[in-house]
């Protein structure tokens, strides 16, 4: 019974860590999102 409790706790910690990572990633993408104009400019620079 102790082993299953330990595994459950470990899975919970991993799940919360993944949730925190996803939330941080989402916030970064929202805050620093490129506009359509910036995206087109970046493509033009790469093709030049």
From TrEMBL:
Superkingdom, taxonomy of origin: Bacteria
Protein name per its UniProtKB record: Uncharacterized protein
Organism: Providencia rettgeri
């Amino acid at each position: 019974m102790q082993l299953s409790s330990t595994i459950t706790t470990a899975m919970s910690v991993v799940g919360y860590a993944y949730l925190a990572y996803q939330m941080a990633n989402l916030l970064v993408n929202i805050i620093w999102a490129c506009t359509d104009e910036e995206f087109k400019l970046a493509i033009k620079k790469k093709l030049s």
